[in-house]
Amino acid sequence: MQSMKNCFEEYGADYTGTMERFMQNEALYVRLLGKLFPSVELRQLGETLMTGNQADAFDAAHTLKGVAGNLGLTPLYEAVCAIVEPLRAKEKRADYPALFDAVQKEFMKAEAFWNALKGGE
Amino acid sequence: MNRKKTILVVEDQAVNREILCQILAEDYAVLEAENGQAALDILERVGEAVSLILLDIIMPVMDGYTFLSVIKEDPTFSAIPVIVTTQSDGDADEVAALAHGATDFVAKPYNPQIILYRVASIIKLRETAAMINLYQHDRLTGLYSKEYFYQRIKEILAQNPNRDYDLVCSNIENFKLINDAFGIPAADRLLCGFADLLQKRIQDRGVCGRLTADRFACLVEHHREYANDMFREDLERINALTEIKNIVVKWGVYPVRENPASVEQMCDRALLTAESIKGQYGTHYAVYDDTLRRRLQRQQQITESMENALEQKQFEIYLQPKYRVRDGALIGAEALVRWNHPEWGLQSPAEFIPLFEKNGFITRLDQYVWDAASALMREWNGRGLPPLPISVNVSRADIFHADLTNVLLETVKRHGLEPERLHLEITESAYAEAPDQIIETAGRLRSLGFVIEMDDFGSGYSSLNMLSRLPVDILKLDMKFLQSEIEMSGDEGIIRFIMQLAHYMKLGVVAEGVETETQLLHLRAIGCDCVQGYYFARPMPVREFEALMEKALSALNSEEKVGV
Q1: What is the domain range of residue B250?
Q2: Is the CB of B382 inside 8 Å of chain A's CB atoms?
Q3: B 469-498: CB under 8 A from A
């Protein structure tokens, strides 16, 4: 139990708030977190940004934001938020690839967090 | 054990869906759908069993907005509350969801406590609303229920003290007969169509309610005087609603003006107004007015006085003689009741008998008359007067009295009489209403020795078939029915046929209401046995009748002496 909490802290997530959402069911959390990888939405976000389809890019980012939020993945959530808002506002920006890179990096960290949790089980 | 209520979670993301299921699982049964179309499929399958829907907006195949639009259009599902799950990133999604008919929203990331409280309170709210709806509306027609209609009237009148309203009540004549003849589904269709017609007529200018099975009421703002044609048009529409034809509806209008009566009283008065034109062909409506008010007040007075009147013996027996046609001999009498009120004087039975028949008091009055007639016959026996029989009335209500046979038997026994002295008159229409009950009761009474007379024969709808089954000794022909027959003076008239039939069936015949010599001559010509009517004598006080008996007796004695 302690190690899971430590993992959360190391990753930068809120253990208590997240576990409340999962009704204190750590195993369920780990299982559902695993469903994030590989992420269809992440792939879709990358592809739609490349083709300039901002509407679909928004849908993918929006979905990703909801899932990341529910899983308590605060660093990933914040990275996704940074790209969701300009997409929602239909802003034409040059830094979308950079914002997407940041999301991808956070994804990898989240996956590492998941692996750590699995190892700690 | 209470069954768990069911919640449908519609969410394409397995992670979010499973979290919601986990949050809800302890208190609810949870169904899952991964998009709007899958959710619709589930609803088609389980229908109204779903107490609440938790709905995501952005989903493949069918998104949340489309799903909301579809179910809000479908009356089966439109009442199911929907909570939309949104991201906490601005109001736009929430506003759009509410605009599409969502009940409420919860934000991601989920807060289990907020979700559980919100879900519970919305389900409760919906159930309460459903119950209120059930209480407010009549299930069949969708009109207001009686109780809620009364409440609405009170509110409307209180909120609009300076406006004039009319309370219009309607009553379908012989609705029970319609139910019997055409079946309940057809009668229900008629009621629903009638209710729709009322709604369309009233629109937003008033309120409508269903008071009892076939009685509707509307409160409408008074904007014009009523005309028979308005109601006739409605009646034509009502008759076109179903296969049921010749429907007769009577409308009663109670004008609601300053200081109105209680709502219940107003509805009663409007219904009584409608009832006051019952049987009047072509008159479709009546307005409550002073004449009707006085009549109703009078009925109220009569109802309040009847018990006392019986105790104080204000009801008096009058006797109308019956004569044998062949030789003019006095052969009996019919007992008729008169109410001699100490303040109002002699009251017409035409006024109080129908009222007593309606309120059930007729049974007690009939028993009083049976007893008084029996006491009189015992007195005649003691005084050596001829042992003439007296006919008494047995009302419809008496027939359904389980103890009728015993009451009658004890009455004659108490006065030391044989049952055959008491002739029991049962009206023809009662035979038609409840043939089996009457055949059984009359058969029992007849086997005990009572003489059964079918009163008002010819005024109702007895079939020859029924006549052959009835345990009857005497037919009393109603002269109202015979009137046109006698005026025609035909030899082959139906009355001759009835007379022959009666003789063939070994039934005696008494023609009542004989008023002219022509009538008597005709009756004699066709072989009528006995007569009764104003031509011979009106109903008279007992002492006058006894004088007739004594006269007949002394005439008989002198004939015997002459003969000797």
Answers
A1: 146-288
A2: no
A3: none
